[in-house]
Amino acid sequence: MTSSSAASYPFVYLASQSPRRQELLQQLGVRFELLLPRPDEDAEALEAELPGERAHHYVMRVCVAKAQAARARLVAGGHAGAPILVADTTVTIDDAILGKPAGADDAVAMLTRLAGRDHEVLTAVAVVTADGTLLPAVLSTSRVRFAAVGADALRRYAATGEPLGKAGAYGVQGRAAEFIEHIEGSYSGIMGLPLFETAALLRAARIDF
């Protein structure tokens, strides 16, 4: 455990390229610096599914793996010591994991699967302290209900390019909001960084904000 007299830190490293996560940290008033994968790192390999893996196990495993990779990156790069924040988000329906679509057609296929039904959005968050300790990762689970959207509307949405790079092929904060009938859980978690859980982890890592 960290003693009450231990040093605090004015910023956290964010090991994510997501503009949404950056916006959410700014909403909390947290200063951050990006700690992104090097060109020689195979970041996509960390997100590969294991055979028969359940969605909640998958998202937690990937988040922890990303945290370990980010810590190694920090040490190898000689960066200043500070905690690291990592998150991973996935969408699941019918026990299937819906990751990032490969293109517009894949996005339409995912959105068609979601239309008129409930699905879950899982976001895992992990923090590595400045001394390299991985705090217990946390999982935010939210339920989202899509309206019975027609194929033409889904194709128009996919053509905007917004679904690309997003788990489940949509962003709750973007144009897809017109398809969403109901949300149960954490809106910020659906965006990619549940702020309640994240704030608790950052305080445990002694981030000043």
UniProtKB/TrEMBL annotation:
Entry keyword tRNA-binding: no
GO molecular function ontology, one term from the record: UTP diphosphatase activity
Reaction it catalyzes: UTP + H2O = UMP + diphosphate + H(+); dTTP + H2O = dTMP + diphosphate + H(+)
A Gene Ontology term for the protein's cellular component: cytoplasm
Needed cofactors: a divalent metal cation
InterPro entries the record matches: ITPase-like_fam (IPR029001), Maf-like (IPR003697)
GO terms of biological process kind: nucleotide metabolic process
Alphabetized Gene3D superfamilies for the sequence: 3.90.950.10
Name of a matching Pfam family: Maf
EC number from the UniProt entry: 3.6.1.9
Active site (UniProt): 88
Major subcellular location class: cytoplasm
Entry keyword set: Cytoplasm, Hydrolase, Nucleotide metabolism
Localization: Cytoplasm
Keyword Electron transport: no
Role noted for this protein: Nucleoside triphosphate pyrophosphatase that hydrolyzes dTTP and UTP. May have a dual role in cell division arrest and in preventing the incorporation of modified nucleotides into cellular nucleic acids.
Family note: Belongs to the Maf family. YhdE subfamily.
Record's protein name: dTTP/UTP pyrophosphatase
Source species: Paraburkholderia sartisoli
